[in-house]
Specification:
The structure is a homodimer.
Chain A (H helix, E strand, L loop, with lengths): L7 E6 L8 H9 L4 E6 L14 H6 L4 E4 L13 H9 L3 E4 L9 H10 L3 E3 L18 E7 L6 H14 L4 E4 L3 H7 L13 H8 L8 E4 L11 H11 L3 E6 L17 H12 L7 E7 L6 H15 L3 E2 L1 H4 L2 H4 L4
Parallel strand pairs in A: 1-2, 1-3, 3-4, 4-5, 6-8, 6-9, 7-8, 9-10, 10-11
Chain lengths: 333, 333
Amino acid sequence: MSEMQNPYLMFLGDVGDQLGAKTAQGIVDWRPDWCIGQLRFKGCVADLGIRDISIGDAVAAGAKTMIVGIVNSGGFLPPHWISEIIEALDAGMDIASGLHIRLGDIPEIQEAAIRNGRALFDVRHPTHTIPTGKGTRRSGKRLLAVGTDCSVGKMYTALAIEKEMRDRGMNADFRATGQTGIFIAGSGISIDAVVADFISGAVEELAPDNDADHWDIIEGQGSLFHPSFAGVSLGLLHGAQADALVLCHEPTRTHMRGLPHQPLPDLLTCMELNLTAAKLTNPAAIFVGVAINTSGLAMDKRRDYLTALEDELGLPCMDPFKDGTAAIVDNLS
Amino acid sequence: MSEMQNPYLMFLGDVGDQLGAKTAQGIVDWRPDWCIGQLRFKGCVADLGIRDISIGDAVAAGAKTMIVGIVNSGGFLPPHWISEIIEALDAGMDIASGLHIRLGDIPEIQEAAIRNGRALFDVRHPTHTIPTGKGTRRSGKRLLAVGTDCSVGKMYTALAIEKEMRDRGMNADFRATGQTGIFIAGSGISIDAVVADFISGAVEELAPDNDADHWDIIEGQGSLFHPSFAGVSLGLLHGAQADALVLCHEPTRTHMRGLPHQPLPDLLTCMELNLTAAKLTNPAAIFVGVAINTSGLAMDKRRDYLTALEDELGLPCMDPFKDGTAAIVDNLS
């Protein structure tokens, strides 16, 4: 998929809760300079904490793409949003959407895009034919964030590592495999939406041959221990050919996300299986650190938990949100 | 997907080599009673070894579905086959195709199907929305054929086990996960064609709750050790919740299929990783046998190889094609 042009106008419509704007909030958190303002209808409950702005003012301020970074149940596009999207196209912006429905499947939007020569980005949908994975070794280096479960901070961890590396002047690019990450990176592949035969091939394309000192910092998805999505995680692991793995974990979770009957793996077991699988395409793969989302732990328990875990695993363990990722980046060479 | 109706008329068109009719040949080998005859154009090189028959005679003999069981490079439908397909629809048959292109995407075929009230089956394409996998334990029992590599006899082994079980009066159904298997079973899901997030969910749907004494004999795909397709294999393994696993192997292969740089796993390593992964959704999973395709071994080496393997693995090892699968079925209880 080609690159989305920034800066972005963040379209929220009249989304009914703050959680529905989670994707948009992620973009504002990680790429504040790209976000010119937010466009909200009367009745919109969410607020990204940036200025409200009209389509005309956004374009005058340089906005190139309007982002429909909304999650709603069903993934549909409310009909009363269509005219605003057409107005944005007529004003000269591209449109990018994370909804399940494709923008181009709505005839008025498709027609307006063609009329104005603008691009429509449906980040959930692969836009081109992906080859099957080959497993051939590629130049450059790669780090992959893996998890004990879904939604344990893999994207956040990867972005925090990219930032730390760039702050140190290292040659690193975050590689997005989910919709929020794609908006943040400006490109990427929604890996859980590709056809099953092409999972590892999609990751090989996402993180191709590169300079010897270049690091792809690849966003993981799911978990090898999640009965719903482990196939995605394994294909991603094989396609990544990771030199370095970071395990992400949320210590207060009592079962695998969405599956009350399914226990979480312990961290050592999870690391062992990830390493075994990773070595198929990169025998030199190692773990370089563990990222813990400690937001559910009491302040006085946090440090003890991390210290005990470091002793057990022999790896730097930290909460990237509170502690940064310096100790992980120190391990990358 | 709904069930295809048999008997079948096997359509070969003017396919250029016997290998292009491999799928059709598999159907004839496993379901000879379903195959009323073959329809071949002048210049057709392939021969299924059954009688040549016209559309009219096939319908008169009871044919319900015409099978386009052809593999060609590109997966397209040669334009000069279209009129014959329309004639078959007009004569009252459904059409089933294993090509990449969808029959319904060809307007004349779609129109003829509607006009005649006939069904079009595109076995490579999932026909409906599949839920994500849940990993919840299901009633009934399941056997899954897994492999050291692609194309090592997983479908053949599963079908041979189903046949042996049925010959013994056991309650067993072959569950197809690839196109040839789907034609043979009359239904199934082409698992490598589903969207990545739904691999295990598709298998849960394919082998649902059943009677306590019922066995689903599930066709495996790929290998946990194949860098291109391991995600499919893992999702299939989790979705299957196999009680019993059979490892399939081709002992003369020198590298993973299609990947000259990728060595084959040894059998014990392959069994260990499959068992570890299988136990996520069925802690009682065990291996019950090993199926070897010995067609590449000299006659006098064959028996020694299997005996040595039995000693090493402590499991019945046989070539299902030459030795049957009785020793595996003896292990099912």
